[in-house]
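Hi C.,

You asked whether I'd gotten around to modeling the 499-residue construct. I have! Everything is below, sequence then structure, no commentary in between.
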Amino acid sequence: MSVAATNPAPKAKGALVAPLQVVAKRNVISWKTMTFMTVSLVCSLRAAPTMAVFGLGAILLYAIPAVLFFLPQTMISAELASAWPGGIYRWVTEAFGPKIGLLAVWCQYAQTIFYYPAVLAYVAATVAYVIDPSLASNGMFTAIVIIAVYWASVIVSGRGMKAVSGLSSAGSIIGTIIPGVVLLGLSIAFLATGHPSAAPMHVHDLLPAWAGIASLVLVVNNVFSYAGMEVNAVHVSELKDPKREFPKVMFATIVICVAVFILSALAVAWVVPNSTVSLTAGVMQAFSDLFGVFHLGFLTPVIAVMIIIAMLSGMIAWLAGPSTGLLLIGREEGFIPPYFQKLNKHGMQMNIFIWQGIVTTIIACLYAFIPVVSDAYWIFEVMTLQIYLIMYLLMFLAAMKLRKSQPDRPRGYRTPALKLMCGMGIFTTVVAFFFGFVPPSQFHSGGTLVYILIVAGGVGIIGPGAALLLDKIKKPHWKTYQSSTGMAAFTTSSADTEK
């Protein structure tokens, strides 16, 4: 959308007002372009070690959430985005009111509080393979890398979206597709040259081995692997023919993502024994072993840097997105103080970045005190998913409510069998949420009760608890912008930037 300035609303007490107006000019993008945009957002090699422990069983464990969760959230977010521009807050607010809308957008934002330490722990493990592989299990090293990289990302993001757009668009190809192809190719060559597979390769192994409910709880990570489609669904109206082309985007994205997830997990399983795979460093373990077999050890740091680029580009892309949604509702509804509504000269919400960075730094320090880094990684990963699942549950419920309450509203795309799609999404979301409170078999830092208390406490406080607090403390004079469209793009002027 093209954005032009208009006269700002009257400035409220201590507030900073963004001059905003949406000009009705439609940008048309091809379905192939949208496919690659979506793949870059969703795909990553990060989950491969988690599923590698299941060997061939990873195929089924990836296919099930693809059908029960990825498909419904893709189709439903496309319909909502084509009818109500503005993202998850607008969709849920239309269905259930601004307070529930706040909960939805806050959960979308709050999950990043745990997402960054989790994804940066993976980055730290990858960095370790460039310096000293033994550092991959060193909590202090992990904490230092998380803190340093996050604040470096804030500095880059603070320069504006133009400064990071090139990195974001190329990161998935450089750090996901190319390393994924190399990993798969070397793994196949590894087997073809007579080396035994570290994972059983019999037909009956397609069914995951049952070692109690703690084993299957790792499936919860697969649901999060497919999360994020609602971010790009807001662009569905920019397709030339949404009804025909978006299903193509959906199908192509699902095929590519499922292929990347399954094949990378199998590649790790073939090379790294189940008993030694690390949830944070498993991909680099596989590369290190393969490069050693084929005398290509000099490529280990090259691949590590490529993967780091992918993870950082994805993190930077996510840094501004959910926080912009929080900024929008803060200005429209007064849910956040004017201090957090300020933009710097590049139009970025640096105060939100900084305070989130403080929380991220505190969480990162926990890595230095948890004996097993993989345990900390998993706890943060599960907290991320649990908070995000609350948002998805509200999205599915909102879709059903809006189809019933506003059936005649024009939609650029209509989800076929909406009730069935929502039913599958709700079922998967609830089941995944339940499994999140069961410790995985690799968790060694305490009993089940300790694990439940840690996860429940983190999710409750950072998720719904914080949203409730924002609703209680909101002030009428914190409203600095009234939107009638639900679409807000931020531009800067001398009136709304920090001095």
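If it helps when you're writing up: The chain is about 65% helix and 0% strand.

Thanks,
B.
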